[in-house]
Amino acid sequence: MGHLNLPASKRNPRQWKLLDIISAVFFGLVLLFFLLVFTPLGDSMAASGRQALLLSTSDPRQRHRLVSLVELGHHHKPIEACPANSVDHMPCEDPRRNSQLSREMNLYRERHCPLPDEMPLCLIPPPPGYKIPVQWPESLHKIWHSNMPHNKIADRKGHQGWMKEQGPYFIFPGGGTMFPDGAAPYIEKLGQYIPMNGGTLRTALDMGCGVASFGGSLLSEGILTLSFAPRDSHKAQIQFALERGIPAFVLMLGTRRLPFPAFAFDLIHCSRCLIPFTAYNATYFVEVDRLLRPGGYLVISGPPVQWPKQDKEWADLQSVARALCYELIAVDGNTVIWKKPDGDSCLPNQNEFGLESCDESNDPSNAWYFKLRRCVTPTSSVNGEFPLGMIPRWPDRLIRAPSRAFVMKNGIDLFQADTRRWTRRVAYYKNTLNLKLGTPAVRNVMDMNAFFGGFAAALASDPVWVMNVVPARKPLTLGVIYDRGLIGVYHDWCEPFSTYPRTYDFIHVAGIESLIKLPGLSKSRCNLVDLMVEMDRMLRPEGTVVIRDSPEVIDKVARIAHAVRWTSTIHDKEPESHGRERILVATKMFWKLTSPSH
User: Which positions, given as ranges, span the membrane (predicted)?
Assistant: First the structure.
């Protein structure tokens, strides 16, 4: 029996509403289907759903269960990819998290890490269009735009020669705010007052570095510069520096000591870094003094040096330097150059900042989450001879055992044995394992457990730089690394590292399990799964990981490597080495984020 075709005015109002609702729901479902399948909304919603799934692993019990399955090799699928909006994620420098913190002394721009159970267990994807980076030394001057498509710096600073977009590349003319014509003429000017060549200067710190063109230009002078800047409004400046192959690190001078030992740097440079050196009773100048090697040079360009309307700030800066007996070498335009005294400063003296020497209970090389001190580090507080002029010039200082090696018992013997051991091991890596060390494929290298820097020293003739990481709970040997003309930082590997994703070509670690154990105990403070997920975050696609440890640990590492999408092989150690070590060599697969199938 058919429906009666009544005029609209004769239909039952209730029947009309019901038909309307059914029709609307049907057509709404059809429209939603087409939106999900054929538009970016589907990808966005899928990513949101994936994010919700990943965040669910922040339930501690569920997360611990997943970690256990991965460690045992019972989780047969790779760990999930993080959402597409996480391609540049740094867990400890998350603006959304840190913006809620105090602005006082830039606390909110320092490291603030979530607890492990609060972090989603997922793998950071590359951005769309990502390519294997331009190789060194070409990368110094150009990188792929698609690898970090952030135009903010190019738009704002292009007229100052920082960087420009050109076709598929960002190009780097070598300029900066205080040297728009390029770093080379600026460095040449500094060379009138400072021994910029000849090996006297080797380690430098560039504070508030922009895209690190100053540090990049110093490489040709044999000066190894560690450049740092916070994650701030100039989005990704450190990421650009690392993509170029220049040593760089995300860092903020705020409430804590910077993670370096005392007397580490032969040269410290600030070009419009805008650090208020005389604020808080000159606390920041005192921290710079802790880091500067006796006899080293401090260069400040830009405000407040002879800067309009900053007469008081400039006068205060000169007063602090005089209080610490710094020798004024030159004031050239808006650039001032000081030389730190070789011996102890002239404290105590009458000074308006109330500066005094630190007492003997203060270890000046203790710098991991250590609050800034408003006291000056005496040269005599660190045993040994390390002023410029008393230590060997580069490259002789690389292999000469520094007096700071006595931080360890029988330190000089340990240093020499460590140097021989790593010379032998690196030769085995290159000649037998056929690793790409020494080729253009490897530029940015990290040693996660550096000790005396022997691995990095064995690579000194290769076109690489090495970030030597000394675990904060192990003996504080980082001063030895700086004394031999290498660079590095303190870090605790139960936390994420302060770098962007995809910044290292080669990551090396000897004794990976020791990084997560309590010293002298078998109990773990954190787990290998989280550590290897963090290594994956730092590693570039097609990058290499080399891990040395006992056979039992290497077997566990191999199971986790599969879960983080690395292809790996296990090798015997060098014939000359003692012990039970085995070596895992892994390559990170170049995978891309894909939309789930519908």
Answer: 21-41
Q: Which two tokens stand for residue 586?
A: 């892994």
Q: What is the DSSP string of 386-423?
A: -STTTSPPTTHHHHSPPGGGGGSTTHHHHHHHHHHHHH
Q: CA–CA separation, 364 vs 381, rounded Å?
A: 8
Q: What is the dihedral of CA 554, 556, 562, 566, to 10 degrees?
A: -30
Paired with 331 in beta bridges are: 336
- For residues 316 and 278, the answer to whether their CB atoms sit within 8 Å is yes
Which residues, in sequence order, are CB contacts of 154 under 8 Å at separation 6+?
Answer: 162, 163, 164, 165, 170
Residue 288 has pLDDT above 90, yes or no: yes
584 touches 558 (CB < 8 A): yes
CA–CA separation, 400 and 409 (whole Å): 17
The structure tokens listed for 45 are 């919603």
At position 504, the amino acid (one-letter code) is: Y
Residue type, 404: R
88 contacts 501 by C-beta, under 8 angstroms: yes
Taking each continuous run of H as one helix and of E as one strand, the counts in the chain are: 16, 17
d(CA 457, CA 441): 19
Calpha distance 65→471 (Å, rounded): 28
Tokens of residue 104, six digits: 């006082």
pTM of the model: 0.89
Beta bridge partners of 267: 204, 297
The gap between the terminal CA atoms of the chain, to the nearest Å, is 41
Question: In angstroms, rounded to a whole number, what is the distance separating the alpha carbons of residues 85 and 224?
Answer: 34
Does residue 510 have a pLDDT over 60?
yes
List of E strands, 175-311: 203-207, 224-229, 248-250, 265-271, 292-301
Q: Give the pair of three-digit tokens for residue 411.
A: 């330190």
Mean pLDDT score of the chain, rounded to an integer?
Answer: 88
Strand-by-strand arrangement of the 335-339 sheet: 248-250, 224-229, 203-207, 265-271, 292-301, 335-339, 327-332
CA distances for 559 relative to 415, 532, 565, angstroms: 34, 11, 10
Cα–Cα distance between 275 and 111 in angstroms, integer? Answer: 18
Given a cut of 50, whether residue 13 has pLDDT beyond it is no
Helix (H, G, I), strand (E, B) or coil at 286: helix
Compute φ and ψ for 467, nearest 5 degrees: -85, 105
Question: What's the pLDDT band for 53 if we cut at 50, 70, 90?
Answer: very low
Rounded to an integer, what distance in angstroms lies between the CA atom of residue 211 and that of residue 247?
Answer: 11
The residues, ordered by sequence, that sit 6+ positions from 31 with a Cβ below 8 Å of its Cβ are none
Nearest-5° Cα angle at 468, 442 to 438:
25
Q: Which amino acid, one-letter code, is at 388?
A: L
